[in-house]
Protein: IS21 family transposase
Amino acid sequence: MINYHKILEMHLQGISQRTISSSTGHSRDKIREVVNQAKAKGLEELTEKMTSSWLEEYLFPEKSASQRGYYNPDWDYIHKELLKKNVTLKLLHKEYEQEAKIQNKMPYAYRTFCEKYGHYGKKYKLTMPIHRKPGEILEVDWAGSTLSVKNSENGKDIKVYIFVATWPFSQYSYVEGFYDMKTDNWLTAHIHALEFFQGVPETVVSDNLRTGVTKTDYSEPLLNEGYRQLSDYYRFTIVPARVRAPKDKSSVEGNVGFISRQVIAALRNETFFSLKELNQAISEKTQVLNQEAFQKRPGSRSTVFQEEELPFLGSLRHPRFTQSQWRISKVQLDYHIQVERMFYSVPYEYVNDEVEVRITDHLLEVYFNEHRIASHKRLRGDIGQYSSNIDHMPDNHRRYLTHTPKENLLWAKDIGPNTYAYVDYILSNNVEKKALKLLATLRNTASKYSLEELEVGCHTLMSVAKEPTNSLLKSILSRAKKRKKTLDNHSKKSIIEEQTDSKYGFVRGAAYFGGKK
Structure:
């Protein structure tokens, strides 16, 4: 048997491979193979339990298994498959048994299979036991430490709060600074983090702060409405951590301390004059940390995230989520609601009702029983401005609002040139207040006649009258209507006479009723 322990002991003492070969009696090729395999496994020291048999199984597991007639599993494949959702060692062992039978080899028992995988995970990857699935959970929090930005006007420091998002599986992190910890910045931080990660987790574990959780409850916490909308839009579940239970988000708690030491503390003596400048420095420091090699496992936070976690993330929706605030408002008697001392109309049918108002940077939407009933462009500038939609008004208010010289001319123009000429005559020969009263009377009269009748009446009026009036027009329209009615009656009478038998007075004839021809 090859004396693996002696070979590696001499190698670790710095003895040349030629001397080791002479001392152990093994070929230089075999010495080189053992030494290279030990280097590949990261073996840097020997312990008492590392006998030659143990080392043979550790360095060449496939050789040990095949010598005993066992089928050696592909532990790299087993490890990657176990990372997938709903995949267990029990399932993988069944698949391994089937593969062993195909190869006419003896499979390991399930217990041995688990022990060997545990040995593999501990010695090769240092990732056992596995508590988190890749892409499953993202933990978020505000760091306890802060940084500052110098106010260029008065030289005072403006406090900056640090947001941290960490994947428990890969420890890959995103860090960004904000001037406050209010809801808008809390949601913005989540959006920026998801865009940085280029994917969405199944679950976000957040702290129980007011920006994310309105009411703390272990079983059914009440989420902030904006936070709930964010999770619905990007399709992830929010699980707030329990109060005074830091283990619920241990990765981000540990990473907050790590970030505080490696990023916040590293920037403590630097001066920044804008939040953008500070965040650029934070981003550069975080990038270095994410790419720094692990001490006890292969790769870095970045490589583990890119290779093992990113493929399991949900797709990122586009366009970006639009943040909004929700408020309750009561519709006043003037069918307007007041939001931030600005006034917005809603349909008058909702007067005295309470409505929900969704506010974004550029839009305001009004909802009643989850149905949108109005939307307005958000007003900016001087307080007390009104945004009124004419369709929201009662008919009498709408008519009053549209009763202007310009609107009356447009109304007349749509009817015809004679009506337009008469309306223009009224506006030209009367002061505006009196003209509008005359036009109101005209439009009331016009409502009783067809547009064609009104146009013909105005033509007659403008042709015969030196000083046209509403009374004269009304008389013309009335006589025209009576004349038309008379003509219609004569026309009907003529038709009846033509259809009636001149002798018997019946269209069907006397024969139809039993009379003689």
